[in-house]
Amino acid sequence: MENPEVLVNCVCQQCNNGWMSNLENDNKPHMRAMLHDEPIVLQPSQQKLLARWAVLKSMIIEACNRQRILFYGKDERIGLKPPSPFLPVATMVWIRRYSREGFHAGGTDIWRGIETFPRAMHGNVSTIVVGHLVVQVLTAHIIPKFGGFPIRPPKCKPGSWAESLVNIWPIFGPVRWPPPISFTTSGADRISVLIDRWKIGNDLARS
Description:
This protein has 207 residues and is an alpha/beta fold. Helices cover 28% and strands 31% of the residues. The chain has helices spanning 13-17, 19-35, 44-63, 74-79, 161-164, 191-195, and strands at 40-42, 91-114, 117-142, 166-169, 175-177, 182-183, 205-206. Helix 2 (19-35) packs across helix 3 (44-63).
């Protein structure tokens, strides 16, 4: 399957041909296996590499919309760079298998209220499908008043997310691929349910 290429002019040539290219190359061995549905065990170091790749793609996805204010701040973007790369605070990354081969890249904004503040937390969700690999990224920002509060994501649509999605960030140990449950093209496990799971209309989830 040939995936369409989209040129997004949002990074400099030095970064694109330097550390970003290195990150792509570091991910190729395990990502190639996952894209083609070959069994593999993701070690913690590989999970961090894949999570960094996914967050980088999330930043590029949002840059496609020139009309929006960028969610990720300068410090978060620079933080992905070597020599001591780190992922944004309050970031979660999940993976799952798609039963077919696909290509998708999209994102959405989400909000959660705390006490009397209806938009105390702002989240950015990106979903990426490449071949059999599905990756979803959630990063949350919270207003300074509630900076010491545990950050919980807004309520999403009902689903067996805890059972069907595999965490790769934060890391909880080695992960086996493929996972036991896959997304399909129809039914309760269709891929569109994951893509739209945070889209709950105009209602803001409150703590």
